[in-house]
UniProtKB/TrEMBL annotation:
High-level lineage: Bacteria, Bacillati, Actinomycetota, Actinomycetes, Propionibacteriales
Keywords: Signal, Transport
Any single GO CC term annotated in Swiss-Prot or TrEMBL for this entry: outer membrane-bounded periplasmic space
Organism field: Nocardioides jishulii
Protein's name according to its UniProt entry: ABC transporter substrate-binding protein
Compartments (UniProt record): Cell envelope
Coiled-coil intervals, chain numbering: none
């Protein structure tokens, strides 16, 4: 009796990875592609020990069927990992390239937007050889890690601070065997950031910035003041923007780089900055919590506002190097308006 064909989904591969695989097969008669002589027999899966948030985990050396959740989703799509399932990541769709968006839409969804919505049966049906969990530690309480470990090796690599995506993404790609694709996206970002840093050096030299974030609470009469390393600021600092000051009291995680003063504290909060940036949507329009600040009479009397030194920043929510290229483009336009 012939074996029944597997119904499991094939990993999503994109051109350069697929071509590499073809080249490897073509050269197999001469040499083992990507392997060293000290490895195990061809029938055995090579493994390695990987340091993750959940400990030292034994994972495949070259994973072929990867599940990604949370912040790992866009990273591993951009890095061309061999994905067989992802969680929903709708917040990042507007920042995806057409190719990445197509990949995202075609991949089976094994969870919603939250860790609590994880579909363990769907993950098991995908027959992964690695599961990359990219959620912050507080969200892990909503996951049954033990159940996931019964399906495949699990590496937890979630952000602890808003700007930690820059280091976490590299580890996520490494775990998934997609470092080559990741490095291409990172290098493109770093080159563009350095170019903009030189271009706007005169405008930025000796200038202190402040930032109004999108997560104030209007009902409580508060606004969000973001400092260096926060959501609205961490990409701007890569092009040489200096965000002055720090939170009065660190509260751990994002609360180390952002605070929520009462609107009455607006004058004191921004009294000593030369330029104020604020978060806007992809269409350039401020979110309600930001508009609340802009409509305040206190805002209109700030020194930077009176001097015409305020500007909205688009795409500040980027958490991957490819999506952050759009942020850099928006920053180039914004900083150009300060000339």
């Amino acid at each position: 009796m012939s074996p029944r064909p597997s119904s499991r989904p094939s990993p999503r591969r994109r051109p350069f990875r697929a071509l590499a695989a073809v080249a490897c097969v073509a050269s197999l008669a001469l040499t083992a592609c990507g392997a060293d002589d000290s490895g195990s027999d061809s029938g055995d899966e090579k493994t390695r020990t990987f340091a993750a948030d959940n400990g030292d985990i034994t994972i495949p050396e070259d994973p072929e069927r990867v599940i990604a959740t949370g912040y790992a989703v866009p990273v591993l799509i951009e890095s061309d990992a061999d994905l067989v399932g992802v969680s929903e990541w709708s917040r990042g769709v507007p920042l995806m390239t057409d190719e990445d968006r197509e990949t995202y839409e075609e991949l089976p969804k094994v969870a919603g937007e939250t860790a609590a919505s994880t579909n363990y049966e769907a993950i098991a049906e995908a027959e992964p050889d690695l599961i990359v969990i990219g959620v912050p530690k507080p969200a892990l309480v909503d996951l049954d890690i033990e159940k996931l470990e019964g399906i495949a090796p699990v590496v937890v690599l979630g952000p602890s601070l808003p700007d930690s995506w820059k280091t976490i993404s590299e580890k996520q790609a490494d775990a998934a065997g997609a470092s080559e694709g990741f490095e291409k996206t990172r290098d493109a970002y770093l080159a563009e950031a350095e170019e903009l840093k030189e271009k706007h050096a005169e405008v930025l030299d000796g200038v202190d910035f402040g930032h109004v974030g999108a997560y104030g609470d209007i009902s409580a009469g508060t606004f969000q003041r973001e400092f260096a390393g926060s959501w609205g600021t961490n990409i701007a600092t890569d092009v040489g923007v200096t965000y002055a000051g720090e939170v009065k009291k660190k509260g751990g995680g994002a609360a180390d780089v952002a605070e929520y003063p009462a609107i009455e504290e607006l004058p004191a909060s921004f009294a000593d900055v030369d330029v104020i940036t604020y978060t806007v949507g992809p269409d350039g329009k401020p979110e309600e919590a930001v508009q609340y600040v802009l409509d305040s009479g206190l805002w209109k009397n700030l020194p930077a506002v009176k001097a015409g030194k305020t500007v909205g920043l688009r795409y500040t929510e980027a958490t991957t190097y490819t999506s952050a290229l759009q942020t850099l483009k928006a920053l180039d336009e914004a900083l150009g308006s300060l000339q």
